[in-house]
Amino acid sequence: MITALKNLFKLPVEQVEQISYQKAVAALLMEVMLADHKVDEQEEKQVKGFLREISDLGEDIDVLYEDAKSGVDEANDLYQFTKVINDGATLEQKMLLLKGLWRVALADGDIDSYEDHRIRRISELLFMPHSEFIQAKLSTQAEMKAE
């Protein structure tokens, strides 16, 4: 019995992939896009547009998009992505991300309850005050109505 336990602890541990800041942002955008189980062309445009705004990847946006999509499919939780954001982002950057999440949710003209819940959960994991969550939602709605 003890030998079996010792052998168990000798097994190699899988290396955990380091998640880049850009991939974490892309994954959170994907989480919102996929929350209602419908992928709309406008949502995809919002995700890719937001990624272009915050990065200088240019043509590599599609690679990041697909990489994030597969990462979300394999993910068990949101924490692995929000931890990367918390470790490297300012409050202003988090607010910008929150607005980007709302833009994705609003892209199809309707905020699904699953999308709302997912953004609320992400906001909590980013330690954003509830007032910032509401402010981001309202300002994004106003901006998108003006467009």
UniProtKB/TrEMBL annotation:
State the InterPro entries in the record. DjlA_N, TerB-like
One short Pfam family name for this protein?
TerB
Q: Where is the Co-chaperone DjlA N-terminal domain?
A: 23-137
Q: What name does this protein carry?
A: Putative tellurite resistance protein B-like protein
